[in-house]
Structure formats: C-alpha cells, structure tokens
Amino acid sequence: MEEKKKKGSWEPQTLQTAIDKVMSKELSVRQAAMQYNIPKSTIHDKIKALNRGEEVTMKLKLGRFTSTFSAEYEQVLVDHIKDLSNRCMPLMKKEFLKLAYDLAEVMKIPHRFDKEKGSAGKHFYYDFMKRHSDISLRAPESTSMMRAVGFIKPQVDLFYDNLEKLMKQYKFIPSRIYNCDETGVSCVHKHQKVLAPKAIRQVGKLTSAERQKHHSFVLYEC
Description:
It holds the Pfam family HTH_psq. By secondary structure, the protein is α+β, with helices and mostly antiparallel strands. It has helices at residues 12-23, 29-36, 40-51, 71-86, 93-106, 122-131, 145-150, 153-170, and strands spanning 91-92, 135-138, 141-144, 183-186, 194-197, 204-207, 214-217.
C-alpha cells in the first residue's frame, strides 16, 4: 500500500518544478506526483487554477513561504550573478531585484512582485539568499578598466621580457630585486555592496579610466 504523503512536506520550488514539467508535457500529472512525492490532487488543482488565469503561489499549508521561481529558474539567477561578478560587473541588490521581476514578466511566471516599482521585494530577496548560501552581499574593490583589460597573457609576457633585458643589461641578480608596497589614494566614489560568490577572495567592480584618479605614494627609508 502506498504511503500517504504528508501535507505540506514538499519544498515549494519542488512543487513549481513538478508543475513546469506537466505544463511542458514532459510528465503527466501522475508521473510528476510520483517523481516529486507530491499529492496528485495538489498538482492538478494548481495547474487548473493557472489555466483559468489565476495567480498561483507555491505556498505551504503549514507555513508562510512563497516561492515564485522553480529551482531551474533560480539557478539561472545564481549563474548570472556569478558570471557578472567574474566579469567585474557585479549586481547591486536593487539591480538583482529588478532582474528577478523582469525574468518573471518575460517568462510569464505568476508572481506578487511590485508592478508599480518593477521590482521583486525584500521577502523574495531574503528567501533567495537563504536558499543560496554561496551568494552574499559584499563590498567591491574598484578595478580600473585599463587594469582589467591590460592584465592579459601578452602584457604579462611583455613585462617578463623587459625584466630579462634589464637583468642582462645591468647584470644584477634576483636577490637585488626588492618588493615595494605603495599606499594608494583613490578619488573614485565608494561602491555600494554587490551580490557575489562567497568563495572568491576579492570582488572587483569596473571603473572607467576617465573617472578613476589614483595617486600612489612610495616612501623609502635608507
């Protein structure tokens, strides 16, 4: 005898995924119910409401959590956050909430986001961050466009070629090369916090060369 499914024991995003599979004809209602361990009547009722044009939320009977996106769509958002961070163009919280709203609108996903502001709300944000603990809100470091573009293999090779020429010309040995740390003063405004992976050591945010004024000071003591 099949074990009776406990009401509200599934994750909201799992229910959303099951509904997506049925509506895309990948699974029948019965198959989705068995695969995701959700009552067949629950999936059927949600799909019926969607077909009537009603707004449907994946709300648990025993709690207040509402999930707008399926697990697949949330992963799209996570991957996009990571990709932009790797390109030194991380999203601010406000930009991320606008992106979430636009995604729901374009993909015609039922939601309760603020249509007037064109943005998802704080409840969505905090729930999203709880589900994806590998993403956090961090303070970025200003990265000049020239530095980001210039730090490529040909430029690095050129540096070492020049170093080799100087060592041969002036005949100094590696032990006579000294490392010098500078103190930098930047005139660029401080960036707002951005969304980025926790795993990376430093988050960069591009600043145009025209706007960046950076003064370096080096002091020697003999």
